[in-house]
Amino acid sequence: MGFLGAVRQGRKDDAELGKGLWRRAHDRFIRGLDRYHQVLEGFEDDPLYLELVEVANALADLSSRVRVVCIEAQRRCPSDGLDVPGSLAGVHRALSRAGNSLATTAEAAAMLRLAVGPVPVGAVSVWRRAEAVAEQVEAAEQLLNS
Questions:
Q1: Contact assessment for residue 129 and residue 108, using Cβ atoms and an 8 Å cutoff
Q2: CA nearest to 48, candidates 134, 117, 133
Q3: CA distances from 107 to 32, 35, 117, 120 (A)
Q4: Helix 124-145 vs helix 89-114: angle between axes, to the nearest 10 degrees?
Q5: pTM as predicted
Q6: What is the pLDDT of residues 98-132, one digit of tens each?
Q7: From CA 138, how far away is CA 86, in angstroms rounded?
Q8: HEC states along the chain?
């Protein structure tokens, strides 16, 4: 994305996500996803790399769902600061946990990258953490819709 594309995207994000709490939750998730992809660069174990790419694809699919939740939360409770609205505190908590879990997913992938020799169980630990991310995104969706 060029400079003008980034400016346009930033304006679109400001309009849809605001500049406060919901924008930060969305951007944190995206940064975690970017970090996960950075960990994959230079991975030398091809079968393990392919398994980690599957995880990356599953996590990338979640990013659009996170965006939808954040847009709807911004619509219901506009935020330009860091105060968590009481009515959507659970939604924010679930999104925050999803961001944390995504960071630990990237960390687990990085640990596999540093492993010496073959990894007998593959990316089981990474999948487990990615499942936690999916569960927390689903929890945010359910709380928003309840």
A1: yes
A2: 117
A3: 10, 9, 19, 19
A4: 170
A5: 0.88
A6: 999 999 999 999 988 887 666 667 789 999 999 99
A7: 20
A8: CCHHHHHHHHHHHHHHHCCCHHHHHHHHHHHHHHHHHHHHCCCCCHHHHHHHHHHHHHHHHHHHHHHHHHHHHHHHCCCCCCCCCHHHHHHHHHHHHHHHHHHHHHHHHHHHHHCCCCCCCCCHHHHHHHHHHHHHHHHHHHHHHC
